[in-house]
Amino acid sequence: MSLKQLNPSGFEEKIYDMGEACLVVFSRKSCHVCKEVVPTVEELQTKYEGKFGFYYVDVEENKALYQSFSLKGVPQILFFKDGEYQGKLSGKVEEEQIEEKIEENLTEQ
């Protein structure tokens, strides 16, 4: 199962308007680390289906969206809940780190 790709208007709708608890992976097709991290995120997607959203932004196609968060390098995994930024994980991250952050966002009230 692949991640749903967001463009700026889709990002606005899913993240801010709907306020869904979710993560957004900022990645680039040519990035070697991204090629390791993105499949890990995709595996977690099936576990949290219906409870937590999983999205993807191609930084080459959506540079302005990437720059709006002042991000440096890829991959970057940003977490959101109720339209609010909840933190990020950068670079080569392990499945456990991602899952821990997802659980944090699901349990916080």
TrEMBL record:
GO BP: cell redox homeostasis
GO cellular component, one term: cytosol
Span of domain Thioredoxin: 1-107
InterPro entries linked to this entry: Thioredoxin-like_sf, Thioredoxin_domain
SUPFAM superfamilies cross-referenced by the UniProt entry: Thioredoxin-like
Coiled coil segments of this chain: none
Keyword Amino-acid biosynthesis: no
GO molecular function per UniProt: protein-disulfide reductase activity
Alphabetized Pfam families for the sequence: Thioredoxin
Alphabetized UniProt keyword annotations: Redox-active center
Family: Belongs to the thioredoxin family.
Name of the featured protein: Thioredoxin domain-containing protein
Source organism (scientific name): Desulfosporosinus orientis (strain ATCC 19365 / DSM 765 / NCIMB 8382 / VKM B-1628 / Singapore I) (Desulfotomaculum orientis)
